[in-house]
């Protein structure tokens, strides 16, 4: 049985359940959008489906995988729910990489889109497993009707106004009398009922770009205005954890990982079909020296040997970019990680005979210090990388609001930094800091803090195709594949099974 640690989540105290429940229960969800839509309207908007998620009796982990590159992906054709496209040689190789990534994982069942490109990806990943594969028609890609099969420039030439609306305002895009994105959100919500009702603890779902976006968004209570905000690359892996509540209530839901890809998450590529001109990379410090269960893990301790290895691996991954500035929390572990990144960048530049030494600026930003705040939550109590429910119980806004307010100011400071000459801003800090920054990026409220999870040594990437004044696109969350043998397994249990009973 899959076992998941409650310490992996920021779960809301009983005293704040009415206010916080929107993060975990779409029935009460309030959506705030970073799009140009009137935010005053969005603040009172309900998700497409207001029904509760089915109650579950045991923890369930759902792993979403997008299919590998298809022939129509390579040609630049609009696929939609058509079934004429098949995997390319590259797509087959990507699926094989995903198979290797998930080789040691024990899945109880695989739900798959019936379309050939996804079904073939699922077959490669599933390999010789004996457990069943269940095709679900609602997992097909978004229905794009008369657009399907057109090259993108043909769509623009033949359906100028409609195609522009599809690109710029997809939630309100109408074609052949249909609203494809709205229909997709309804389908995704329907899929969750069947996935959660299945008697399984670990589920693999292999489908498509848009439908996987909709599955992630509907799970954590985001509406159609978040279409193209949570990136899904070919064979990208995303992970959602569902934690049961008592009294047949909807489960707690947490996005454990988003878009862990076979390729580097910082390699050149597009975000939502456009080149990103600016980028923020959130680097979580590595493992700490004092990591026992009865000691705080707040980043004020130095890195352990494992933490140093994790930080070096992250520094090597970032060599694909030219980093000029690293912004760091004043915590010891964060500053050590920032210095490792800086020195690795500088050393790489000095390897050639004609090289010119380059200095990477490390800025210690006191406002990034959430560790001190967290350390004051409850004196003498153990604090995990992500806050435990027992520590939050009864503390309510007194804990969440100061962290939330401070990180909101930090987010604006980072956007200002990005508005200057910097193409990339690397931010090193505590997991809770980065969770809050991503939540600010998405224009959500503190109610969503419990909807995300980060591991030590992970990176998360936010792209800005329209610059820092535009919408941030989440390229990946909690990416750890760069850690090699020290990476975090996709479905590794984090608590002994008996402790979940």
TrEMBL record:
It is an enzyme of class 3 (hydrolase). It catalyses: 2-carboxy-D-arabinitol 1-phosphate + H2O = 2-carboxy-D-arabinitol + phosphate. Its EC number is 3.1.3.63. InterPro entries: His_Pase_superF_clade-1, His_PPase_superfam, PG/BPGM_mutase_AS, PGM_Phosphatase. One of its GO terms (molecular function) is 2-carboxy-D-arabinitol-1-phosphatase activity. It is found in: Plastid, Chloroplast stroma. It holds the Pfam family His_Phos_1. Keywords: Chloroplast, Hydrolase, Plastid, Transit peptide. CDD domains: HP_PGM_like. The active site is at residues 67, 141. Substrate binds at residues 66-73, 117, 152. One of its GO terms (cellular component) is chloroplast stroma. Belongs to the phosphoglycerate mutase family. This is 2-carboxy-D-arabinitol-1-phosphatase. The gene is LOC110699600.
